[in-house]
Amino acid sequence: MARLSIITITFNAEATLERTIESIENQDFKDIEYIIVDGRSTDGTMAIVHRHEAIVSKWVSEPDKGLYDAMNKGLRMATGDYVWFINAGDEIAEPSTVSRFINTDADIIYGDTIMTDMDGNVIGNRRLTPPEKLDWKSFKDGMLVSHQAFVARRSLCGEYDLNFRFSADFDWCIRIMKKSSEIKNSHMTLARFLDGGITKQNIIPGLRERFRIMMHHYGLLSTVMHHIPIAIKFFAFWISKGRF
């Protein structure tokens, strides 16, 4: 049975961290290395970490250069066969979630995500849905699998490119998929994702970065052609749901 490293990035997250930790603590699969990388919080975040030291395998609290720099620190600390980022405010979907997907030889396990608000109430599904079969070319149509529903073999995980401030996870997932031999659809909702993260808060620069990333991996013509239906679906969802 594989060992799983779960990494949580925090900064002044006392309002949301407890439910994240509890969702990991409540897993019926116990071979989890739980790592918290904190950006030197000034609120009660670290008090919460200390309260849960029985489940937190490793933690660090120090200044960083942003979210993806902190994620790179977490990757360097991880020793599990697989890594999974469940950040402050996000939750594993069910207590049985890990035990239902972990027994595999796949390089990547992916699934769906439910969006929640600050109080943990369900908002609905993501605008984009995971495809039945996933490979590195699938992201020509956008980030069809959220970062919170993407579990990767640690040996294939390079570091996040810090040249990207808002969409380095998009590039990171593509690079891992390019190196993967088997990508498994769990056919499960893997995570509850707290709406309003760094990319959402910086939607325009984030989309510009994604365009650059797509050009790098797929070429200019393919990127432009795929952005036409992406833009249509984006605005249609925004109009009908009042969110994106």
Give an overview in words.
- There is one protein chain.
- With 244 residues, the chain is of the alpha/beta class.
- It has 8 helices and 9 strands.
- It has helices at 17-25, 45-51, 67-77, 97-101, 168-179, 198-201, 203-218, 220-241, and strands at residues 4-10, 32-38, 58-61, 82-85, 91-92, 108-116, 122-125, 150-153, 183-194.
- Strands 1, 2, 3, 4, 5, 6, 7, 8 and 9 form a 9-stranded mixed β-sheet that branches.
- Strand 6 and strand 7 (122-125) form a beta hairpin.
- Helix 7 runs antiparallel to helix 8.
- The chain is globular.
- The model has no long low-confidence stretch (mean pLDDT 91).
- Following the backbone from N to C, one meets helices and strands in this order, namely EHEHEHEEHEEEHEHHH
| SS summary, helix count | 8
Overall mean pLDDT: 91
Q: How does the overall form come out from the CA principal axes?
A: globular
Radius of gyration: 17 Å
